[in-house]
Amino acid sequence: MEDREDDGVPDGRDAPRKRLLRAIAAQAAAISAAVHLLWAWPRLLDPPDARPYLFVLAAALAVGIAVATLRAGEYRRLYALGAGTLGAFLGGYLAWHGGGTGEALAADPLAIVAVVGETVGVVAFLALYRLAPPTSVVLERHRTDPDGDDEGRDDRAGRTGNARNDDGGEP
Length: 171
Fold this sequence. Notes:
By secondary structure, the protein is mostly helical. The chain has 7 helices and no strands. The protein is elongated and about 55 Å long. The protein starts with 15 loop residues before the first helix and ends in an 11-residue tail after the last helix.
């Protein structure tokens, strides 16, 4: 199921299928965050109900996952976090409404948007997880990047393997 180039080496992060799945997963996480904020915002001043505050935190987490999905490397742990977070939103909705989930969905179009978006997001994150190489492979790619364009790495340390001179000082 992995995308492969002609030489048999797995495609990198920018394979067309992976780009499409990342876009879908990030959009699904952003939609879920927006729905949670739309539900929570007018209810923030309801004193006995803690759900609006939890929804705001959950929305912030979903936005963080969406941004990291678009900007970070191919990290299976990130994709598992995305699938787990959106899956937890779905599970929480089902648990909260119990047997009346169908009626609750029928009465709230915003909930339909959330459930569909979260379902699509879980599928996209799981597909990304399956297509991504193990984390150790990704980390090794960053260490041995021949172009030296790995963001956040000191090129001198990357080429020499050691950022200090023999006397312990900086180069």
